[in-house]
Amino acid sequence: MPGGPMSQKNRQGVLRSRPKGLVADGDIELIETELPELVGGEALVKTTLVGIDAAARTWLDDQPGYLPPVQVGEVVRAATVGEVVATRCDAYEVGDVVTTLGGFSAYSISRDDVYTTVMGRVSAGTAGVDQEALLALFGSTGATAYFGMYDIGRPKAGETVVVSAAAGATGSIAGQLAKAAGARVVGIAGSDEKCAVVTDEFGFDSCINYRTTDLRAALREHCPDRVDVYFDNAGGPILDAVLGRLAMHARVALCGVISSYVSGEHPGPSNYVKLLAMRASMAGFNTLDNWGRFDEANAELRRLFDAGKLTFRSHVFDGLDQAIPALNALFEGTNIGKTFLRP
Amino acid sequence: MPGGPMSQKNRQGVLRSRPKGLVADGDIELIETELPELVGGEALVKTTLVGIDAAARTWLDDQPGYLPPVQVGEVVRAATVGEVVATRCDAYEVGDVVTTLGGFSAYSISRDDVYTTVMGRVSAGTAGVDQEALLALFGSTGATAYFGMYDIGRPKAGETVVVSAAAGATGSIAGQLAKAAGARVVGIAGSDEKCAVVTDEFGFDSCINYRTTDLRAALREHCPDRVDVYFDNAGGPILDAVLGRLAMHARVALCGVISSYVSGEHPGPSNYVKLLAMRASMAGFNTLDNWGRFDEANAELRRLFDAGKLTFRSHVFDGLDQAIPALNALFEGTNIGKTFLRP
C-alpha cells in the first residue's frame, strides 16, 4: 500500500503523570509513533471519534476498577469509533465501521477475537451510518442508561423520575427512557442553558438548575408526589437532597459520582435513612456486567430512536491536542450531551 | 364476675412528655385507671409480657412513621402478649393467649376485628405455649429478621453474612436464619459478654466487639472473602465500615439505626460509593408491609425452632415501673436478646 496508512505515522495521547483532580497540562502528552505492521487476525482502524466519558478519567487513577488503570506511558483508554483502512483478518473488510476501545489514538488495531459482543462491528454495507450515534446511543453510554433505568429504576407510567446530570450523555438518555415508560421526568442540571436543552430537546417535563435554586425546595415543587425513581450521576449533596424526597418503595440507581471523581471525596448522604422509612432501595450497577444483554439494549434503543422518541446531542472537540480540555469539560460542567474528540 | 377483673383497677404507663434522647424520669408516668366495661366484640386481656423494642421508642417522637406517634397523655404503644380474662365476643374464649398492641398496660381490650392477621390469636387449647417465644420469635421481631434476611439479604450457602446488634432481639434471629441458609455468619456486638452469647448460644461463626477493636481491621480478618450480606441494625460508623468491606453484588438490609434513635443524627456513610463499585444494593424494609406473609414467616420460624436451629434469649424487667429502664436498655447497649417488661 504505497502512500497508504501503513506508511503514515500514528498520533497518540499518552499518560505521562496521574492527574490529581482535573487533568493538568503535561499529564497527557501527544506523541507521534510508527503504525505497527498488521499480523494475521488484525485490522487497522482509523479513529473517527473518541468518546469522552467519566470512565476514561477514572482509568487514569491508580485504583482497581472493572478495568485495570492506564499505566504511565500507555495510551489513554477510551471508547472509539473508526473505519477499517487495512485488514489481515476475515472479520473486517476495508470500509467497515467498528467501535472499539481504541483510546486517544489516530489509528488503532482491532483484533477479530475481541469486543465482538459489546464493541460490535458495523458492516460496511450500512453506508451513512451515524457514527456519533454508535457511541452516544448504541454503545456503553446508551446501555448504561438502559440497564440503570430499566433494571434498577423500573419506572412505571405516572411515576415521578428524577435524573441528575440530565444534560449529560447518560442522563439525557436515561430520562428519555423513563419518558418512554410513561413516567413524569424531572432533570437536575447545572445551568439554565442545560435545563433548556433538557426540556426542549430531550423532552423532560421540567428541569431544576441546582446552582441557582434551593434544591430541596425545588424538589418539593417539581415533585409534589415525591420521587419514585432517582437516576444518580451526581452523588454528594444532590444525592442527599433527592434521598430526602423519596416516595414509598422508591428505587435509586447509582450510576456515577461526578461530584467526587475529581475531589476524591465522597460525603455520605445522611438521608440514606430515608431508604429505611420509605422501604426504598439504592443499588449500584455496572454496564459491563451485562455484555450478554447489549443486543437487547441496543434493539430497544434503536426502536425508540427510529420512532423519534430518543435523541442525543454531541459536543465535539477537534483534534487530539484537545484531549485535556475535552476530559476536563465533563467535570467542569461545561459539556452538554455526549462529548467527543475528533482526532 | 364479682371479684373478677372488671372490678379491678388497671395500671398504665402514659406518655407525659416527649423524651429527647434517652427517656427521662417523668416522661412516662405510671397511673391507675378504671378497667373499662366490655362492649360486644371485645375481650379483656391481662398482659403477661410487654415487648420492648426500638419501634416503641420511635413512636414517642413526634415524627410521622408507619404508625402515628403516641400522643402526650396516651398509653405508650407496645406489642404485648396476654391472656383473655373476660370476653364479649365469639373470637376469644377466657384462657386464650393473644398477642396484640396492648401497650404499657396491665390490662387491655382486644377487639375481634383487628390484628387478626399479625397479632394472631393463639387458641386456649395450646396450653403451655411459650409466651416469650410468641413475641421473641413468632411476632414482629422474628418476622423482621425473616423478611430482612430472606427477602433482601438472600444469603446463599457459603456466603459471608454480617449482622450488627447481633446479640439483640432481631439481630440474633437474623444471624440464625443466615446460618440455616448455609452462610458463614459474623456478628458485631458491643461487649465481650454479648459476643460470647452470639457465638455460643446463637451459633454465629464469630463475633466482633466493635467497642474494643478496630472494626475495619476486624472485618478484614473475620471476612476474608468480604461481605455478601449485611443486616444493619446500627447505622452510623458501623454501617460505613461494613459498606467498605462489601463483596461484589452484596446486599445490605437496612433494619434500624440504633446508633441514632436517641441522638437523632444520621451521619451519612461515605462508603455508600462502594455500592457502585461493587454493584451492590442497600434497601430498607418494613415488616408491617408484609402482614399478608406473616403465616409464611411464622411457619418457617416454627420449623427451625422445632428443629433446634433457632433459639432466643430473654431479658425481663419486672414491673411496669421499670418501663423507662427497659426502654433505655435498648439504646444503652445493656440488653441481650429480647427485652420484656412483665407488668
TrEMBL record, chains A, B:
EC numbers for this chain: 1.-.-.-
UniProt organism field: Candidatus Neomicrothrix parvicella RN1
One MF term in the entry's GO annotations: oxidoreductase activity, acting on the CH-CH group of donors, NAD or NADP as acceptor
SMART domains (alphabetical): PKS_ER
CDD domains attached to this UniProt entry: PGDH
Gene3D superfamilies reported in the protein's UniProt record: Medium-chain alcohol dehydrogenases, catalytic domain, NAD(P)-binding Rossmann-like Domain
InterPro entries registered for this protein in UniProt: ADH-like_C, ADH_N_2, ER, GroES-like_sf, MDR_fam, NAD(P)-bd_dom_sf
Domain Enoyl reductase (ER): 51-341
Protein name: Putative oxidoreductase
Alphabetical list of Pfam families matching this protein: ADH_N_2, ADH_zinc_N
Keywords: Oxidoreductase
